[in-house]
Amino acid sequence: MEQVRLLRRGRLSLLWVPRQALAALLLLVLLVWLMLLALGTGRIALDIAQVLDILLHGGGTALQRKLVFDIRLPRVATAVATGAALSVAGAIFQSLSRNPLGSPDVIGFTTGAATGAVVYFVLGGSASAGSALFAVGAGLLTALVAFALALRGGAVASHRLVLVGIGIGATLSALNEAVLMRGALEQALAAQLWLSGSLNARTWDHALPLLAGLALLLPALLWGQSRLMLLELGDDLAQQLGVPALRVKGFMAFGAVLLASLATGAAGPIAFIALAAPRLAAFMAGEHGRPLWPAALTGAVLLQGVDLVSQRLPFDLNLPVGLMTALIGGLYLALALPRLRA
């Protein structure tokens, strides 16, 4: 059990865990360093001092400022926000299902969001806001169907939700392929490229809807994490402690599906971040309270780090970040997950 401290100022009091605070501080420093490296990475390379000069003082040439503010910063913002959103969504679903495999990508919610965006592209749409809207709608519909099919006797058991979600995800994955085959060649190629999960050519039109979603949802979800911890003791005991189990579960699940769908709409399907980042965050920060903010930082660090590696691969490979996370995540699933506590 981690050490818990009480901070009191007048009528206000705050419980905090030193291990969580230290982990969050280290993750934040690492994230800022990775972001600065990413802003300097490209065919026109910039060192960290040049990037800081451009960001803080408006220095550099006009071309360098355009590179940083109009091309690289939207990509970095999309990477950080997507990683944070997927990780928070994964932490919530793993807590609700009490299952380390209960993340949105494993139980099909992100595949459902991807189906909505693929349909939008094949119908001829190209606007980032349109793909995000279709992704959110399809993600919510997928979650609704999964919970309805997993419902038995007024309750949703975690193993039923995971199994039903895996089945729905497989069905929707096949549906995506069928939609691509029926679409016109140009739209199908655009949708296929998007399905690989990429941060290339991301603009503020991709980043801003996701950033706005995070700004609105994250404070509310952080407020609900203490109730989430009580729900892990069991619904009956949580209700005796004054937690309305059904309402809290519904609210947290709704917020997590929205975050995962917005992230998918912005960057395409990104595998394993929602699965691995919450477990790594718990390993570093401790299990006390299932902290969502270290999970958000871990997800942001992982996706930004993987994107940076993909941009610096030799021979100009520059693989899509979704493919890179799938390669790394597969190794994680095979080697690390069996050793983590359920």
Helical content stands at over 70%
> How does the overall form come out from the CA principal axes?
globular
Strand order of the largest sheet: 1-2
Could you give the distance between the termini? 16 Å
Uncertain residue ranges? none
Give Rg in angstroms: 20 Å
Q: Provide a count of the helices.
A: 13
* Largest sheet, strands/sense/barrel: 2 strands, antiparallel
- Return the structural class: mainly alpha
Describe the structure.
The protein is mostly helical. It has helices at residues 18-39, 48-57, 62-97, 109-122, 128-150, 158-182, 185-195, 204-231, 235-240, 245-267, 273-285, 292-311, 321-335; strands spanning 5-9, 12-16, 151-152, 155-156. The strands form 2 sheets. It has a two-stranded antiparallel sheet with strand order 1-2. A hairpin with a 2-residue loop joins β3 and β4.
Tell me briefly what this model is:
With 342 residues, this protein is mainly α. The protein contains 13 helices and 4 strands.
Q: Descriptors for this entry?
A:
about 350 residues, mainly alpha, two-stranded antiparallel ribbon, about 70% helix, globular
Topology (SSEs and partners):
Elements: E1 5-9, E2 12-16, H1 18-39, H2 48-57, H3 62-97, H4 109-122, H5 128-150, E3 151-152, E4 155-156, H6 158-182, H7 185-195, H8 204-231, H9 235-240, H10 245-267, H11 273-285, H12 292-311, H13 321-335
Antiparallel strand pairs: 1-2, 3-4
